[in-house]
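Good day; I would like, with your permission, to put a structural problem before you. What I wish to show you is a protein chain and, alongside it, a tokenised description of its three-dimensional fold. Thank you for your consideration; the sequence and its tokens are set out here:
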Amino acid sequence: MGEPRFIWSDPAPWIELEQEFGTEFPADFREIADAYGSILINNQLELRHPASHLLHDLGRFIRENLEFWREEGMAKYLPSRAGGGPGELLPIMTATTGEMVFLRVPDKPSSPWQVVVQEMDSPGWDLHEMTFGDWFLAYLRGEDVTVCSSDLAPDRPFYEPLP
């Protein structure tokens, strides 16, 4: 994707989010967001950082989407409840092509995090039994992880700051 330009080192925004949602975000997700900040990847995938001074911050995104995905009409399109508890789904990213990316909170502290992608144009969702870092790397390579970038970034992955 190129060199990161954000390079955030203050853990305070993460600590606040983790206290609010009752779960600790996976280290690989935190590392990527801290390095790049709130960005649009391949004109498709929106990554947000939790620093609340940003226009596109992760905390606001999660709160708004938890409310949306907990509505009776939308909850039925997910394999489990939206939230921060064990087995629940935390919405973390959206795609301009209509997908929503969730982190599935492990059932037990020793279990790995997983990625769930919900396809907004259908009632379908896909569970990717891999860490966020592995899922993200597969996305950047253009592999099929429900959200596919190979046609949007034919030369190489790229990003730009969210406005």
